[in-house]
Design brief:
Layout: E1 6-9, E2 17-21, H1 27-31, H2 36-45, E3 48-52, E4 55-59, H3 62-80, H4 87-97, E5 109-111, E6 116-118, H5 122-133, E7 136-140, H6 147-160, E8 166-171, H7 187-205, H8 208-217, E9 220-224, E10 236-240, H9 248-255, E11 263-268, H10 282-289, E12 296-300, H11 310-323
Parallel strand pairs: 7-11, 7-12, 8-9, 8-10, 10-11
Antiparallel strand pairs: 1-2, 2-4, 3-4, 5-6
Helix pairs in contact: 2-4, 3-4, 5-6, 6-7, 9-10
Length: 334
C-alpha cells in the first residue's frame, strides 16, 4: 500500500497496530472535526485510536484492528482522490471493511452534476451492481436504506450519459384515497405532496435550473402511477416508488409498460403497506410470481443498509423492538 502513502505496520498479538501517512495535510479531514471520525470508528469497532504527527496507533482485538486499518485506509484513499469524507462515509467504510479487503470498486460509484454517490454498505453495493446488470430490479427494504435514492442517482447518470432519453418517476397516491378530489388546486397541485420525495432526490442530483428545464421538456417526468396506464415507455429509466401500495392489477400494468431500451427499478417496503385492510399488495405478488424469472433481480436491503443520521437508525431499531410480538409488546396496529 506504499503507493497510497500508507504503510501497514500491524503488530502481532495484543500490540497496537501502527499506521503511517505520507500527507499530513489530509489528516484533519481524515480524523474529523474534534476527531469525530476516529471516535465513530472506536465506537463501531471497539478499538482505541491514538495519533501523534503522521502516525496512528490502533489498539484492540486483532480482528477489530484489521477492520479499523482497512476502513481508515479506504477513507485516506478517498481523500487522496480529492473527495471529502463525512461521518456517513466513516460508517460506510467500516461496513464495507467487514466484507471486503478493498475499498468499494469504481463501478460502485455514480456521478451526477451535484455529487458522486457511492455504495455505503454491502447491500447497496449489490443493489448498484444489479442496476448495472439487469433491466428490471426490485429493491425491498426499510426507509433510509437507499432504495429510491440510488435508483434516481442511476437514472440521472444514465440520462447525462445519453444512455436513456428520459426518466419517469412514479408513485401510487394511495395515501390520498378518495380525498384527492377535495384537496385545493389543480390536479398537479393535488398530487405534488405525494411525489415530493422523488423531487427531493432529483434536486440532490441536479442543479435546480436543470431539474426545472428537464421537467418542462419532458426529459424528466414525475407522475402518479395512474398516469402510466396505456403507455409504452421506451428509451427510459422508469422508477416505481412505494410499490408496496400498488394492487396486483396496478403492478402488472406498470411492469408491462417496459419498452425497448428501457430499464425499471421498483422499490418498496412490505412492512409499510397502506392499502385497505385485507387488500393484496402488488409488490408481494411480484416477489412470489417473478422470483425465478430470468433478467429480473431482487435486492433485499435491511436496517444494516440505512445511511441516514445514526440516530434515525437507532429510532427505527427501537420501534422494531417495541412492535415485536416476541418481546410481549403490543402489535403496531393495536
Amino acid at each position: 500500500m506504499s503507493g497510497d502513502g500508507l504503510v501497514d505496520g500491524r503488530g502481532a498479538g495484543p500490540r497496537p497496530a501502527q499506521m503511517h501517512f505520507d500527507d499530513n495535510s489530509l489528516l484533519p479531514a481524515l480524523f474529523g472535526r474534534h476527531d469525530e471520525h476516529l471516535v465513530e470508528i472506536e465506537r463501531m469497532l471497539d478499538v482505541k485510536l491514538r495519533y501523534r504527527g503522521n502516525r496512528l496507533e490502533i489498539a484492540g482485538a486483532e480482528a477489530s484492528r484489521a477492520l479499523a486499518d482497512r476502513a481508515i485506509t479506504s477513507l485516506y484513499r478517498q481523500l487522496k482522490e480529492g473527495r471529502e469524507v463525512v461521518p456517513a462515509d466513516v460508517q460506510a467504510a467500516v461496513r464495507m471493511a467487514a466484507v471486503s479487503d478493498e475499498p468499494p470498486a469504481p463501478g460502485q460509484a455514480i456521478s451526477t452534476r451535484r455529487r458522486r454517490i457511492t455504495a455505503r454498505s454491502p447491500g447497496q453495493a449489490g443493489y448498484l451492481a444489479a442496476l448495472d446488470q439487469h433491466e428490471l430490479v426490485f429493491a425491498l427494504g426499510p426507509a433510509g436504506s437507499g432504495k429510491t435514492y440510488l435508483a434516481v442517482a442511476k437514472a440521472v447518470a444514465l440520462l447525462l450519459e445519453g444512455r436513456v432519453d428520459r426518466i419517469i418517476l412514479s408513485r401510487p397516491a394511495v395515501e390520498a384515497g378518495e380525498r384527492l378530489g377535495f384537496l385545493p388546486g389543480d390536479l398537479q397541485e393535488k398530487i405534488n405532496p405525494y411525489l415530493r420525495p422523488l423531487y427531493d432526490a432529483l434536486y440532490d442530483m441536479l442543479p435546480a435550473d436543470q431539474v426545472a428545464r428537464r421537467l418542462a421538456s419532458g426529459e424528466i417526468e414525475v407522475a402518479p402511477l395512474a398516469f402510466m396506464r396505456g403507455r409504452t415507455l421506451a428509451n427510459a429509466f422508469v422508477i416505481l416508488d412505494e410499490a408496496q401500495n400498488t394492487t396486483p392489477v396496478q403492478m402488472k400494468m406498470f411492469l408491462t409498460r417496459l419498452g425497448e431500451s428501457s430499464r425499471m427499478a421498483v422499490t418498496g417496503d412490505l412492512s409499510q403497506i397502506d392499502l385497505p385492510r385485507g387488500a393484496r399488495s402488488g409488490l408481494q405478488d411480484a416477489v412470489e410470481i417473478l422470483g425465478k424469472v430470468e433478467g429480473v433481480a431482487f435486492i433485499r436491503l435491511t436496517d444494516a443498509d440505512m445511511v441516514r443520521h445514526p440516530l434515525v437508525t437507532r429510532v427505527v431499531k427501537a420501534y422494531d423492538a417495541f412492535e415485536d410480538p416476541a418481546r410481549g409488546r403490543p402489535d403496531a396496529g393495536s
